[in-house]
Amino acid sequence: MSPRAYRFRLTDTGARHVEEIADWWRANRLEASGLFLAELARCLERLTQMPRSGTTYAHDDVAGLRRAILRATRCHVYYTVDEGASCIIVRGVWHASRGSPPELG
Question: Residue 17 in 3-state DSSP?
Answer without folding.
Answer: helix
